[in-house]
Amino acid sequence: MIEQARRQQADLLLIAGDLFHRQPLKRELKEIAAWFAEIPDTEIVLIAGNHDYLHPKSYYRSFEWPENVHFIGTRDLSAVSLERIHTTVWGCSFWNQEDTRAVYHRDILQKVLQNANTVKNHREAEYDVPFMRGTGAFERFADSGQVDHRRRNFQILLGHGGDDRHHPFRANDIAEAGFDYAAFGHIHKVAQLIPGKVVMAGSLEPTDCNDFGPHGFWMGELTERGTSVSFYPIKKCEYIQQEINVTPELSAYAVSELVRQELQSRKPYQISHVILRGYRDAETELPLDEIAEMERVVRVVDETEPDYQFDLLKQKYDGTLLQKYIEVMEQCPNLELRKKALYYGVQAMLDTAEEGRERIG
Ligand SMILES: [Mn+2]
């Protein structure tokens, strides 16, 4: 990511919270600060998310960042004015693991963008946070209205949350408030909520094996004509769901060969959840252990149904409840319902039969 920022000579790198999955250690901040210092020509703005929230003892509160790094630690929206790149970035940090306040509500957003003085007073009352960098620049901007009117000042929102317990928001509110761009974090799945305007960053890499789909970062350009962003997947590790369609003719050996074949089309960075669907021969035991042992398979899920030979079953269980059940269900006009009733019903009755045949005998 840092390397990309250097190569692209990025003006601005936005980190939308939860840079750490828990409270960062001091040495971890030192380490990341050293990385950030490697790209001094890139302004870096970051906020704390619900995982690395600003605990009273958080090292974020006292940490000295390099010149190009701007940490927005306020609990309500405040701004960092980056005069060199004619950009103001608005944001706030989590002070608790949960925060249900609608800090990105449309009324608040409109107010912060339209009335700099209101924001300034607000800042003095509540935002007196000594570790915030860039406030000096912001003060000039708010005090005397020294916005460079010859060039447009870009307005960016940097946010975190989006579910009921973490700063719920509506993407439309943000687009309509007049921000040029809004970068959000928190939801692991990457998404463009409003094309070119509001994006959810996702995580750079999956945080666990159920974190499916591509992960990476957004990169784009803000110009007078508008914003354009594209997603850049980091192809290091990606979890996918590999569905395998099982049919009753397939032997256990054939199923494992089929899986092996399908897995060959994976990319080297893809790790599979193998999901077996369809109908297996009722007598066949699927080679689940063998599949689980295959390379880059993290999990096997058997969702197949046994394919019963209903005519044979009727003969074998002639005169029993099972035989009558099959006969009645075979008359069911709804095909989907008939299939389900037959498979689940017969399976349940056979399971019971194994416990004691007399029950259906
Ligand atoms: Mn989060």
TrEMBL record:
Source organism superkingdom: Bacteria
Q: What GO molecular function terms would the record report?
A: hydrolase activity
Listed Pfam families: Metallophos
Domain Calcineurin-like phosphoesterase per the UniProt entry, residue ranges: 2-189
InterPro entries per the record?
Calcineurin-like_PHP (IPR004843), DNA_Repair-Maintenance_Comp (IPR050535), Metallo-depent_PP-like (IPR029052)
Q: Per its UniProt record, what PANTHER family does this chain match? A: COMPONENT OF ATP-DEPENDENT DSDNA EXONUCLEASE
Tell me what this protein is called. Calcineurin-like phosphoesterase domain-containing protein
Origin species:
Eubacterium ramulus
Q: What is the lineage of its organism?
A: Bacteria, Bacillati, Bacillota, Clostridia, Eubacteriales
